[in-house]
Amino acid sequence: MNLFVLPICVTISFAPSALAQTLQIRGVTGFISEYELSAELSEQKPDTGAPEFSGPMIVKHVGLCTHTGPNEVIGRLKLRFTASSRKIEAKLSYDDLECSYSGFLTESETGFMKCTDRLTLPIRLWMK
Q1: pLDDT tens track of the chain, all 128 residues?
Q2: Is 63 helix (H, G, I), strand (E, B) or coil?
Q3: Which terminus of the chain has a smaller tally of CB atoms within 10 A, N or C?
């Protein structure tokens, strides 16, 4: 009976590599990190050959101060790794904003995203 279990386990262990990859992304934005971001991105196959990831994103107000608007909005996040694989290019769409970010995918480094209406906001993005 043990001989039949081993081939099944080996087959199962290699099966997920054939599936499309997903990324769980977390982040914060705002001048005092008053907004949390979370997204589950699925791999897309663009014509450029470089893998891209895209999916819904939740932006939640977690700051202590009051603000205008809802406490949680759903948006969209698109992410692409650059040729060096260390940097990313991201497009964020939420709450009538279109933003772009080029930087690192790490919890320890803050970058800046440029949004519509000449708004520039600090942001940190990382993989969970």
Answers
A1: 444 443 433 333 333 344 568 999 999 999 999 999 999 999 987 676 677 999 999 999 998 888 887 899 999 999 998 877 679 999 999 888 899 999 999 999 999 999 988 899 999 999 98
A2: coil
A3: N
